[in-house]
Design goal:
By secondary structure, the chain is an alpha/beta fold. It has one domain: Rossmann fold. The protein has 8 helices and 8 strands; from the N terminus they run βαβαααβαβββααβαβ.
Length: about 210
């Protein structure tokens, strides 16, 4: 069983990268067949710009580029997809959003036919979302930010493609005890990343 862990943060020494490494550590402890790959979008120099060629792909007038085909192949090889990212302006960083914009293309992640019918093509893929935020949970709850993030990312992106969001975690707090708890949770999620029926969900704040 293989997990693709995608991380989007410009600082390789950040907590975001440490969380991604913690998930990978957990995957290695999940069993002898557990393996993982960390895709560091910053280090790899992924181009997130959705350009004219991407529009042609969306309209099925062109095939995806070799770069995008390679990203899709990485996901196809994976038994689980894990996204680890900081919260920027109540969403994911532009680099990660651009990766989704370009890689989750029409004809691969989903099919929009000329008759308007939608075919969701990622139903086999369990997804785990780990977002790191700087504000407190009270702020997220008071303004409905976490619920809005879940709607636009969990539902708007992954449900549209049929992928199952098994984990949707918002990790808050920067004190040492918070960091240790986040790393413990990352390892815990990694150990259970291939369990199809287990969910590690943060409940929406009332």
């Amino acid at each position: 069983m293989h997990a693709l862990i995608v991380v989007a943060h410009p600082n390789p020494h950040s907590l975001t990268h440490a969380i991604a490494a913690g998930v990978a550590e957990g995957v290695s402890l999940s069993g002898p067949s557990g393996s993982s790959e960390i895709a560091d979008l910053t280090r790899e120099g992924f181009d997130p710009r959705f350009a004219a060629g991407d529009i042609d792909v969306h309209l099925k007038r062109a095939e995806v580029s070799a770069e995008i085909a390679a990203e899709q192949a990485r996901i196809d090889r994976a038994d689980a997809l894990v996204l680890v990212y900081p919260v920027y302006w109540w969403s994911m960083p532009g680099l990660l959003k651009g990766w989704i914009d370009r890689v989750f293309a029409n004809g691969w992640a989903y099919d929009e036919g000329s008759d308007g019918k939608l075919v969701k093509r990622l139903g086999r893929l369990p997804v785990h979302l780990l977002a790191l935020g700087g504000a407190g949970m009270r702020t997220y709850a008071r303004h409905g930010y976490f619920g809005a993030m879940k709607m636009q990312i969990d539902h708007g992106i992954f449900n549209y493609c049929g992928a199952r969001v098994m984990t949707s975690e918002l990790m808050l707090g920067s004190r040492q005890q918070d960091i240790e708890a986040h790393l413990d949770l990352a390892r815990h999620i990694g150990r259970g990343v291939f369990a199809p029926t287990e969910k590690y969900m943060v409940e929406d704040a009332a």
